[in-house]
Design a protein that fits this description.
This protein is an all-alpha fold. It has eleven helices and no strands. The chain has two domains: about 35-110 and about 155-190, no CATH class; about 195-358, no CATH class. It has helices spanning about 15-35, 40-65, 70-110, 115-130, 135-155, 160-190, 195-235, 245-255, 260-275, 280-310, 315-355. About 20% of the residues are buried.
Length: about 350
């Protein structure tokens, strides 16, 4: 009888390949550890995330300055200085509006106890929505009073949050500066560890992933601008006070997909009601931001984002809704870049297997 030859598979790793995979494992472990401690270290990771976004968006401008003779360090200083100047200009623009709104809120809180608020809410509902049953009006009033009481009791917690916010504002320009200045060195160090057999496909993958992330942030800023601009035009048409401030809030918050119209609508509804004192003022704002939300859902995000990251519009919408449903805030924020990067990785893996016989 012939003995059946046993087949063995031997995988040969050269030293360079082994070192490369050790580095990949180490980086994966760092990412895993950061995700684990993220909920407890927001004061570090929020500015880090914002700084990375700013660095990705402004890096092309740094490179243009380098081409006309600036050193990398000087080009980075110029760009960070311009970002700070833009931020300071926005702060000076917003201070008068925010100060007036805060004074109105403080005055309202000082003059209105929870019991007085309950009476005001019931009177308002009876006058403007008389068809609602009295029991339901009482339930609505109680819910509002509970929220108001909780706000008064927990208002002191805003102080630590404000301190953390100020610390973040200080950290962001420094982190952005060092990412812009030294990010190229980190990329070079990583590229040097890539084995020769994987070098070309890895460089292609690295370049395309970087392009997808950059395109995502640029597209998201463009969507936010469109939401803010449309909000501003409609608020002006309906003569809502502080249209520019509300539109700015809607645009900035729309960096998190679909949050802009919601935040802008709530802010505008409160300001418009306090200014005009009628239920019609709230209905006007609701109509404005329903239109803005529809434009964002069906025009801005699907078209701009799908062209930016080269994803089918329906896939963009599905990714946002699934991400938001599964992971909440971070799902909304990261759904599109994650899907875009996964698409690039899967595509490049298949291309490399076919072209380079890996």
């Amino acid at each position: 009888m012939k003995k059946q030859a046993s087949s063995t598979v031997i995988i040969n790793f050269d030293r360079q390949t082994l070192v490369f995979f050790v580095y990949l494992f180490f980086l994966a472990f760092i990412v895993w550890a950061l995700l684990k401690i993220f909920p407890y270290s927001g004061i570090i990771f929020y500015p880090l995330l914002i700084s990375m976004m700013l660095a990705i968006i402004t890096n092309p401008f740094v490179m243009k300055l380098e081409k006309i003779g600036f050193s990398r360090t000087m080009a980075t200083v110029v760009i960070v200085f311009l970002l700070l100047a833009l931020f300071v200009s926005l702060v000076f623009f917003l201070i008068p509006v925010v100060e007036k709104q805060l004074n109105e809120i403080i005055s309202f809180v000082q003059q209105t106890s929870p019991d007085e608020l309950r009476v005001k809410v019931i009177t308002f509902l009876k006058k403007n929505l008389g068809f609602i049953k009295s029991d339901f009006r009482q339930v609505v009033a109680e819910k509002i009073v509970v929220l108001y009481s909780n706000f008064l009791q927990n208002s002191f917690l805003l102080i630590p949050s404000l301190i953390n916010f100020l610390i973040m504002l200080v950290l962001i320009p420094f982190i952005t500066f060092f990412i812009l200045k030294d990010g190229r060195k980190f990329k070079k160090a990583l590229i040097e560890k890539i084995p020769n057999r994987f070098f070309e496909p890895a460089i292609n993958l690295f370049y395309k992933v970087n392009s997808q992330i950059s395109n995502y942030f640029i597209s998201q800023l463009l969507v936010a601008f469109c939401v803010g601009f449309l909000s501003f035009i409609l608020l002006l048409l309906f003569k809502v006070p502080y249209a520019a401030f509300i539109a700015l809030v809607a645009g900035v918050f729309n960096i998190i997909p679909y949050l802009g119209p919601v935040s802008g609508g709530l802010l505008a509804a409160g300001i418009n009601y306090f200014s005009k004192g009628t239920i019609g003022a709230v209905i006007d704002v609701a109509l404005i931001f329903v239109l803005v939300r529809m434009a964002d859902d069906f025009i801005f995000t699907p078209n701009i984002m799908s062209k930016g990251v080269k994803l089918y519009p329906l896939l963009v919408i599905a990714a946002i809704f699934i991400g938001g449903e599964m992971y909440g805030f971070w799902g909304l924020l990261l759904a599109i870049p994650v899907v875009a990067v996964l698409k690039v990785i899967i595509s490049e893996v298949f291309i490399s297997l076919k072209r380079y016989h890996l």
